Amino acid sequence: MFMEREWIIQLVDLKGFGGADRSEGILYVEESELSGQILSPSLSGDIVKRVSLSDGRAPGVIDLAFDDAEAVKAGLACGGVAQVAIFERKEFPREYFDLKRKRVPFVLVTSVRPSGNTECSVITLDHSDPNVSLPRDVVDKARGLITAAKKSTTVLNLQECSYYISLVAPKTHMVVLGGGDLANKLIELAALLDWSAEIIEESSITMNARLFESLTLGPLDALVVLSHDHEASTPFIASILKSKAGTYVGSLGSRHTQAERRRRLLELGIGEKEVSEIYGPIGLDGSARSVGETALVICAEVQVHKSKRPLRHLRDSLGPINA
Fold first, then answer.
1. Is residue 207 one of the residues assigned to a domain?
2. 50 and 17 fall within a common domain
3. Which of 68, 90, 112 is the last residue of a domain?
4. Inter-residue long-range contacts of 230-236, CB under 8 Å, 24+ positions, other chains counted
5. pLDDT for 78-93, tens place per residue?
6. Which of 66, 143, 252, 255 has its CA 20 to 30 A from that of 292?
7. Final residue of a structural domain among 90, 122, 148
8. What is the pLDDT, as a whole number, of residue 130?
9. Cβ distance 302 to 189 under 8 Å?
10. How many structural domains comprise the chain?
């Protein structure tokens, strides 16, 4: 029976639902235990129930229709059709879970054959599953989504097959090392940007060393160092630089402070290239005067780093303004 095995239900496409989030949606079903979410918590439960009734067709792709009353009750604007693919967990790419744990953005490609058979593969900027043959157009489209860092689902119909291409990317997480008014303002601004954020107070840095060692930051995340306590903060910075994850690392302080921090990092064995990638003094040159303005130019610098684009004015860009 469906509920007695380990299954993954993946959202591959939506029609309707009043502009609901079309990006990644995954449900994990293990011995009747449910985790993850598609659309909303209440609709996730309904999806599992409906999929369990189609046991004879699983795995495969199923269209699930929800009327306006069901959708509104779940907090959505209107009804629609959710198309989901069903996989036994052992058939789902292992890289999916590894990349999620490392907080690395990637694309999940679900291929649907005319027979209804499905297969799922993972694509990163520099890697694609060697066991799955995908058209070049699909791989290029997938990597374009990663570069643009735009969470969405794109469908390509090629050679009688449908390819559902979804960006899987974590929400930016900002770790602020050191407290104070600027740290609090950064937390406020991060919330407005829909980032998650946390402060490790300067008085607790040493006590939180083990916690920090277990913290994973990816290329969309940020470490903002406000602390001037080199003894405590330098090992934190070194651990992030050693991971070579492409995480934003920015440090507050004068050029003298930056030079001392650089010396200590080099003594810890961090390479010249990695040390040179620290944004210090931190923030864009926006003539910030107040605490709020300083927080703004720091977050703006984080955003530019995430985009992997050179800093420029939007008016000077030739591409779409929301790309």
1. yes
2. yes
3. 90
4. 230/260, 230/261, 230/264, 232/202, 232/205, 232/206, 233/177, 233/178, 233/205, 233/261, 234/261, 234/264, 234/265, 234/268, 235/209, 235/268, 236/177, 236/205, 236/209, 236/212
5. 888 888 888 888 888 8
6. 255
7. 90
8. 59
9. no
10. 3
Paired with 60 in beta bridges are: 86
Q: What are phi and psi for residue 319, nearest 5 degrees? A: -90, -175
Tokens of 1: 């029976």
Looking at residues 123-131, what average pLDDT do you find? 72
pLDDT at 4 over 80: no
Q: Tokens for 242, please give them.
A: 């050693």
**pLDDT tens track for 12-54:** 888 888 766 655 688 888 776 778 888 888 888 888 888 877 6
Check whether residue 103 and residue 159 sit in a common domain: yes
* CA separation for the pair 222, 174 (Å, rounded): 5
Q: Give yes or no: residues 85 and 117 share one domain.
A: no
Q: Would you place residue 56 in the very low, low, confident or very high pLDDT band (cuts 50, 70, 90)? A: very low
The domain containing residue 239 runs over which residues?
173-307
- Say whether both 165 and 177 belong to one domain: no
Q: Is the preceding peptide bond at 320 cis, omega within 30 degrees of 0? A: no
pLDDT score at 128: 63
Residue the block writes with tokens 């999940």: 108
Question: Which tens digits make up the pLDDT trace of 179-227?
Answer: 899 999 999 999 999 999 999 886 666 545 556 667 889 999 999 999 9
Residue 187, CA distances (Å) to 41, 278, 289 in order: 27, 21, 18
Q: Is residue 237 part of a domain?
A: yes
Helix (H, G, I), strand (E, B) or coil at 141: helix
Confidence check: pLDDT of 322 > 60: no
Torsion of CA 228, 230, 235, 240, to 10 degrees: 40
Q: Where are the alpha helices (DSSP H) in the chain?
A: 41-52, 68-73, 94-102, 136-148, 181-192, 209-213, 230-243, 255-267, 272-276, 291-307
The answer on 111 and 86 residing in a single domain is no
